[in-house]
Structures are given as structure tokens and as C-alpha cells.
Amino acid sequence: MVGFFEELGCTYDGYPACPGRPETRFRTSQNRFPSTFASMLTLPLPVVVALALAYTAARTWFGGDRARWHPLLVLLVVAAAAQSLLVALVQHYGVTGLRWLQPVTASALPPLTWCAFVAVQVRPLRARDAWHGLAPLIVLLGLLFWPDGLDLLVIGAFVTYGVALLLALRPGAAELPLSRLASDNVPRWLWQFVALTLLVSALGDGLIYLDQLMQSGESRARLISVMSSLMLLALGSIGLSPEWRLPDSLDDSRGAQQPASQIPSDSAHAEPAADVLDAADPALLARLDAYMREARPWLNPDLTLVALARKLGVPSKTLSAAVNLGHGENVARYVNRRRIEHACKLLMAGQAVTRALFDSGFNTKSNFHREFQRIHHLTPTQWLAQAGTPPQREGFGNRPPQ
């Protein structure tokens, strides 16, 4: 009997069995059974992250709202999920044959993030943007010809694109032409967080590199697992923020539908030459103010800077500079001020807050309340109380149309 248990990995205690508990005479060698059972019930952190990101991407792509998401954003989340799974296979499941692929695919994430930023917030991608694909190619060449500097190449990719994003989003930089004006600075803050995520990931890679030099890589697997999981989870989660959903239409009319032949393309985003009007020309502001009064484009929650500039026949940078010079605020706040003024009239007329915000061109309560407090330094309820008008109770009849 003792030999039988020893074959199973158990050893004999040498003590007599307790009455009714004969199993106490034997103990499991090196906790073999419990550890095996526990490993079946738990998953490494990178696997959990990969599953969460894959589910998010699948729900977005195969759901009924696919047209509202740029394919590059979904691709970014899928790439983050695949990278997290690759980390798990190499670091936790011992699939060492894929170790060479890990730095190559990791170096593809920063340029993919940059391309997603450009396509979603600035302009459609062009053929010349293909050079960003050189980053993983350089790392692949480094794997073949400079393996000792491979970590430095990956760190360089993350630092380069992280800094590039921060420079493009720095205070005083140009506004994001394709961003919804109702969101004001929220998309800019989210992209700044993404840039910091890339830089923090570079810092983590630097710690891994130093650990390998100073401690023979004793903590390498743990550092790679934790740092990469946190970075990929943040990158993937932010990648599908509601603030980055594509507008229904670049036209100014609320709810207007575009035929397939008029779906915006590179030419649809083309802007007039920069010398059409000078930003300091008062005639441009006069035209803008007249257009805002007569056409009321701000009622469209999907209004963007590039759409507004195209209606006026000027480049978006010229329009942005003109509004900053003439009104002392950016285009988003200029447009949202009109929306808040309209919402105040609706509130004074007895309309509920939820209905008023949607009827004024806002698409989320958070954006409306943020802009309302920025302008009036009060919440809508406090503002109504100060005006002596009791707020309308929210009811089913006051909800916005779905």
C-alpha cells in the first residue's frame, strides 16, 4: 500500500492513522495534487486581459453598432488582445518557440496607436502613412543582426510614439478636426492618457532590461506579465471609448442620412487652400456668426470642426485660429456655448433637463453638465432654482428618442 501511494507522488508519514481518518498517514509530495488542481482553476493575468479585450472587440465588431467605430480602433484592441495572449503563452505556458515574435508584435502597437489617432481625430490615412510599418520591421532586423539591442529598439518605438502623441496634443496645438465639438477636450485628454500609457510601458521595458543586466533576469517573467497586462488593458479599454465613435454624418443637418456614394472619403475631407481667408479677417467671423444663427448647425450632436469649416469654405486651421482670435475660446467651446444658450431657453420653457440637452445638440449627459457648469458655474437644477423656475420632473415622455 505504501508503495502504491509513493507511485502517486505521496510519502508515508510514519505516524499511525487517526481513527476514522486513515488518509492522515500520507502526505502529498511537494503539494503536487493541490497545485495541479489550482492551476486548472486559475488563469494567468495576461490570459484574463486577452479574453476581456477579445470579448470587447467582438461585441463591438459583430454588434449592430459596427458602423460607428473606425476599423483601426477595433484592430488596435484585437492587437492588444493578441499581444497579451502571446505574453501568456511565452511566459506562463512555456511556448518558447514564440519568444522571438513577442518583441516584433509589441513594436507594432505604438505605430498602430498613432495611425488610429490620426484616422479618428485628424484626417484619413494616406499612402505615405505606410512608413509607420517600419517599426516592427526594424525590430525584426534587430532580432537577426543586433539581438543584444532588441530591448532598446522596442523601448525606442514606445518612447517615440508616446512623445509624438503628447506633442500633437500639447496645450496650444491645433484642435482635433474630426472630434465632436460637443466633447470639447475629452478626446484630447483620453489620447494624452494613451500617450502616457505608451511611455509607462517603455519605462516597464526599461526595468526589465535593467533586471536582465543586473540580476540575470530573475524577475523578467513577472515584470513582463504585470507591465504588459496593465498597458494592454489600458490601451484596449481606452481604444473603444464612446468619445471616439464615428459621427453618423459629416453633414450639418440633424439626422440626415448620406447615400453610399457620398460616404466621406479622402476627398470629402479635403479642405480649401489656406490662403482663401486670413484668420484675422473679421469677415470670416461675421460669416460664421451668421451661419450659426441661421442654419443652427450646433443642433447636430455629430458636428465636427472639419464639417463646419467645409461649410464656410475655409481650412479648419484657419477657422480655429479665427475663433480663438475673435472670441478668445476654441471652436468646441464657441459651439457649445450656443448649445447651452438654447438649452437654457428650453429649460425656462419647462422642458426636462434630459430632453433639453438632447434637443440642444449634446449626445451625453456628462458633456452637457460639464459645459453647463463651465459657463454658468452652477448645475442645471441650481440654475433653475436661482431663476425661480422649478425643474421639470424626468419622465418617460421626457426621454430622448432611441
Helix and strand content put the structural class at: mainly alpha
Proportion of residues in helical segments: 55-70%
β-sheet strand percentage: under 5%
Q: Spell the H/E element sequence.
A: HEEHHHHHHHHHHHHHHHH
Biggest pleated sheet: 2 strands, antiparallel
Number of strands: 2
- Termini separation: 72 Å
- Shape verdict: elongated
Overall pLDDT metric: 77
The rounded Rg comes to 28 Å
Indicate how many domains the architecture comprises: 3
How are the strands ordered across the major sheet? 1-2
Number of helices: 17
Unreliable runs, pLDDT <50, ≥5 residues?
Answer: 1-41, 249-270, 273-277, 396-402
Give an account of the 3D structure.
58% of the residues lie in helices and 1% in strands. The chain contains 17 helices and two strands. It is elongated. Strands 1-2 form a two-stranded antiparallel ribbon.
Give me the secondary-structure topology.
Blueprint: H1 2-7, E1 10-12, E2 26-28, H2 32-41, H3 45-62, H4 71-91, H5 101-106, H6 109-122, H7 134-145, H8 150-168, H9 186-215, H10 220-239, H11 282-295, H12 305-312, H13 316-327, H14 331-348, H15 353-358, H16 365-376, H17 380-386
Antiparallel strand pairs: 1-2
Helix pairs in contact: 3-4, 3-10, 4-6, 4-10, 6-8, 6-9, 7-8, 8-9, 9-10, 12-13, 14-16
Labels describing this entry:
mainly alpha; 402 residues; 3 domains; 17 helices; two-stranded antiparallel sheet; Arc Repressor Mutant, subunit A
Task: Provide a quick synopsis of the model.
By secondary structure, the protein is an all-alpha fold. The chain contains 17 helices and two strands.
